[in-house]
Design goal:
Length: 133
């Protein structure tokens, strides 16, 4: 992690790792490190806040199709909104619908949720990748 931060500082000429987005294997290792504080109860589906490591927020991504389980994406976010490595822009609000094909479901009615959004990398110097082996 120190090497990843050195790369980030070398690229951006400032900053420090403020957020890590990590695959499940990387998170399993990070939670054993001194200074880790777990913030999840394990019941969350999808990407979620997993914990902090020495004050750095860790987002766990369980799905290997979204993020390699051994990868950690390290980000620096400055104090200004213009010092962000990326932008998340939803262009369709969250929609919940019950108009799904209904089979024989003894539990009850099915529902679906959807949202469309885009992510754009603005300042690639504020992002680096760490691979846990």
């Amino acid at each position: 992690m120190a090497d990843a931060e050195a790369v980030l500082v070398g690229n951006a000429q400032r900053g420090t790792i403020s957020t890590m987005i990590a695959g499940r294997n990387a998170c399993a290792i990070m939670q054993t490190l001194p200074g880790f504080n777990k913030l999840t109860d394990g019941n969350t589906l999808g990407a979620h806040v997993f914990g902090t490591l020495d004050g750095v927020m860790i987002i766990r991504v369980n799905e290997a199709a979204i993020l390699n389980p051994n990868y950690v994406i390290c980000l620096w976010k400055g104090t200004s909104p213009f010092e962000a490595p990326s932008v998340y822009a939803p262009f369709m609000p969250l929609v919940v619908t019950s108009t799904l094909p209904a089979g024989k479901n003894p539990i009850g009615q099915q529902r679906g949720a959807a949202v469309w959004a885009g992510i754009k990398i603005l300042v690639s110097q504020f992002i680096t990748r760490l691979v846990v082996t």
